[in-house]
Amino acid sequence: MKLSHSLTPALICCALAAPVLPGWAQNRSTAHALRLLHEMADAYRQLNTLDLTTRTYAIELPQPSKTTPLPALITSQLQGKATGRELRLKVERPNKLVFAVRNKDDGDASMWVCDGRRLWSYLPNTTIGSAHGNFYTRSHAPANLSELARMKDMPPGSLELMMMEGLDPFARLAAMVQSIRYEGEKTIAGVVTSIVELHSQANGQSVRIAFCIGKTDHLLYRMIVQERQLPAAANPALVGDRFDALVENSSPHANKTPAVPRPVMRITLDNRIRQPQYFGSDTFFFVIPKNAQRYTPINGSHVLTLGSAGIPNSAGHLYNFPFLKHRR
Question: What is the pTM of this model?
Answer without folding.
Answer: 0.77
